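Hi all, posting the design record for the shared folder.

TITLE: backbone redesign
STEP: 1 of 1
STRUCTURE INPUT:
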C-alpha cells in the first residue's frame, strides 16, 4: 500500500513540475509587463516586480491601435467560425448520410489532402485573392480557409454514430434531409460543433502568416500582426512589449482554460465511431 501511495506521490509531483514549467513563461510575461524599465534590464532579474506598473498597459494601448486590432480579429474570428461550421456540417452530412456516386472516393481524396502542408497552398491562394481584388479586405482573411477537412472528418465520424433508423424514421414521417439535419442531427452533434467553434476561434485568433500576406494597411491588421509591428515601436521597452503580449494572449488563454474540457470531449466523441 505504501508503494502505491509513493507512486501516486511521484505522479502528482511530476504533474506539478510540468505545470510549473508550462505556466512559468506566462507568469514571466505578466511579471515583466508590470515592471519598470530599470527592473526589466536588472541583473539578476527579479521574479516579483517591486512596484506594479499597470500604466504600462495604458502606454502600450496609446502607442498602437490595439482596439482596432481586436475589432478586426473578433470580426474575422466570428466569420471564420460561422462559415467553417456551416460548411463542415453540410459536408459531413453529405458524406455520412447521402448516397451519391463516388462519395467514398471523394472523401478519401479529401482526407489525402490533409497530408499537404498548408504552406504549399499559400502562393496559389495569394494569387487567387490578388486576382479577385480582395487584398486588404475581411474576405481575404477567412474565405480561403472556410473548408477544413479535419472538422468535416470529425463531424462525419460523429454523424455515423447516429443510428440510421433515426434517419429512416424521419424520412417516413415526411421530414426532408434539410429538416432532419438541422432539427435532429445538429442538436445531437452539439458537443462536436462546440469543439469545432473553439478550435476555429483559437486558430483564427492566432493566425499570423496569412493575414500578414493579404493585409497592407494598419487598419486591417489582426492582433498577432499588430504585436509584431509594435515590436519596432516599443524598441527596447520590453515592459511595454510584454504588456502588449499579455493583452493579446490572455483572452485566448482564459477561453481555453474554461472550455478545454469541451474541446477534449468533442474530439473524443467525434473521433470514435460507434
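Okay, here is what came back for every position:
SEQUENCE:
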Amino acid at each position: 500500500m505504501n508503494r502505491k501511495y509513493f507512486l501516486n506521490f511521484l505522479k502528482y509531483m511530476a504533474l506539478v513540475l510540468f505545470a510549473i514549467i508550462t505556466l512559468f513563461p506566462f507568469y514571466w510575461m505578466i511579471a515583466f509587463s508590470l515592471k519598470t524599465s530599470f527592473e526589466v534590464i536588472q541583473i539578476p532579474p527579479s521574479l516579483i516586480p517591486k512596484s506594479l506598473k499597470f500604466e504600462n498597459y495604458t502606454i502600450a494601448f496609446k502607442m498602437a491601435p490595439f482596439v482596432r486590432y481586436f475589432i478586426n480579429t473578433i470580426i474575422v474570428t466570428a466569420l471564420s467560425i460561422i462559415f467553417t461550421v456551416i460548411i463542415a456540417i453540410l459536408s459531413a452530412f453529405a458524406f455520412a448520410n447521402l448516397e451519391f456516386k463516388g462519395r467514398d472516393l471523394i472523401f478519401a481524396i479529401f482526407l489525402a489532402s490533409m497530408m499537404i502542408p498548408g504552406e504549399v497552398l499559400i502562393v496559389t491562394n495569394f494569387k487567387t485573392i490578388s486576382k479577385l481584388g480582395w487584398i486588404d479586405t475581411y474576405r481575404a482573411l477567412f474565405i480561403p480557409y472556410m473548408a477544413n477537412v479535419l472538422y468535416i472528418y470529425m463531424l462525419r465520424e460523429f454523424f455515423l454514430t447516429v443510428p440510421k433508423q433515426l434517419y429512416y424514421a424521419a424520412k417516413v414521417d415526411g421530414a426532408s434531409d434539410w429538416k432532419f439535419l438541422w432539427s435532429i442531427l445538429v442538436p445531437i452533434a452539439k458537443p462536436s460543433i462546440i469543439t469545432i467553434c473553439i478550435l476555429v476561434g483559437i486558430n483564427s485568433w492566432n493566425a499570423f502568416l496569412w493575414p500578414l500576406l493579404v493585409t497592407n494597411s494598419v487598419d486591417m491588421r489582426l492582433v498577432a500582426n499588430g504585436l509584431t509591428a509594435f515590436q519596432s515601436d516599443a524598441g527596447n521597452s520590453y515592459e511595454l512589449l510584454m504588456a502588449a503580449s499579455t493583452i493579446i494572449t490572455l483572452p485566448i488563454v482564459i477561453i481555453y482554460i474554461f472550455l478545454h474540457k469541451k474541446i477534449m470531449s468533442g474530439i473524443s466523441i467525434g473521433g470514435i465511431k460507434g
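COMMENT: The two ends are 38 Å apart (CA to CA).
Let me know if anyone wants the other runs.
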